[in-house]
Amino acid sequence: MSKEQRTQVSAMLRQPRPDGSRSVEAIRAGFKAMMAQMVVPDGLRITKTTLGDRPALHVEPGTEPGTGTRTGTRTGTRTGTILYFHGGGWVFGSPETAVSLTGNLVARTGFTAYSPDYRLAPEHPFPAAIEDTLSAYRALLDSGEDPSTIVFAGDSAGGGLSVTTCLAARDAGLPIPAAIVAFSPGLDATRTGESMDTKAGIDPFFTRESLGHTGAMYLAGADPHQPLLSPAVLADLTGFPPMLLQAGTDEVLLDDSTRMAARARAAGVDVILDITADVPHVFQSFVGVLDEADRALDRAALFLTQHVRTPDTAATSAR
């Protein structure tokens, strides 16, 4: 990663913001404007649909074999489905703001993806988001999709949902997905990770205060000391699928990933903790700007294709 790349991203994230706590409307508008700058691969088919009880985006690879993209080349459509959960602190964001990340995973894997528009706080606090993401997973299963071909993925709050939705699915007696990929996941509503303090001032995006502001909207008075809010410190991960956790060293939520990885290992779960130096929260969004973002997405795509049993992989293993 060049100094020029780091400077460009840092300047974008450190733009002056109004003093004090911003309104929900201002937070949502600012995030939407920032994410509109991110690169979406060419050649995708993106349509609005419904999954479960909520609107969703359906993202599919292009129809022409070998279609090139600005960030990679698709190798052909495979049988696999990514259930992608967008970030935004459970308060802001949408499937549209995450379409760069969703689209880049689709372009690199050849899988299709659904990104549900789960309900947001403060209008719909915990556990509304988990209810909606679990409903989306149920809908895929009810449509006949094999869980061995479904993966959960998400960024930030959505990375947290990739874990808590799996917890909710397991506890509801549903089959678990084939794998989980989480980009800079939010996994501890107690905010007890050491990085909350050691990365203060280094993180160009979050502060303890800003996380507390939106976090209170999502909690709405709920005790954060429960597995569906703080899985990195409280969840029983028995029976979980393989996990890939990616984070950067320059983020206050770093220890959400490091402690989740340790907890997964202790539960006998296959887990890869993928930490990139000198990059911020959800650095994968800066694909085409940061070299590390492209490489991290390549690693995530490889992980997904290795863990989804498609007709291609099943035929290969049978030889």
Task: Outline the secondary-structure elements.
Blueprint: H1 3-13, H2 24-35, E1 45-51, E2 54-60, E3 81-85, H3 99-109, E4 112-116, H4 128-142, E5 150-155, H5 157-171, E6 179-183, H6 195-198, H7 208-219, H8 231-234, E7 243-248, H9 254-266, E8 271-276, H10 291-307, H11 311-318
Parallel strand pairs: 3-4, 3-5, 5-6, 6-7, 7-8
Antiparallel strand pairs: 1-2, 2-4
Helix pairs in contact: 3-10, 4-5
Compact overview of the structure:
The protein is of the alpha/beta class.
Please provide a written account of the structure.
The protein has one domain: 3-Layer(aba) Sandwich (Rossmann fold), CATH 3.40.50. α5 links the parallel β5 and β6. The protein is globular. It is built from eleven helices and eight strands. By secondary structure, the protein is an alpha/beta fold. The chain has an eight-stranded mixed β-sheet with strand order 1-2-4-3-5-6-7-8, with helices on both faces. α3 packs across α10 and α4 packs across α5.
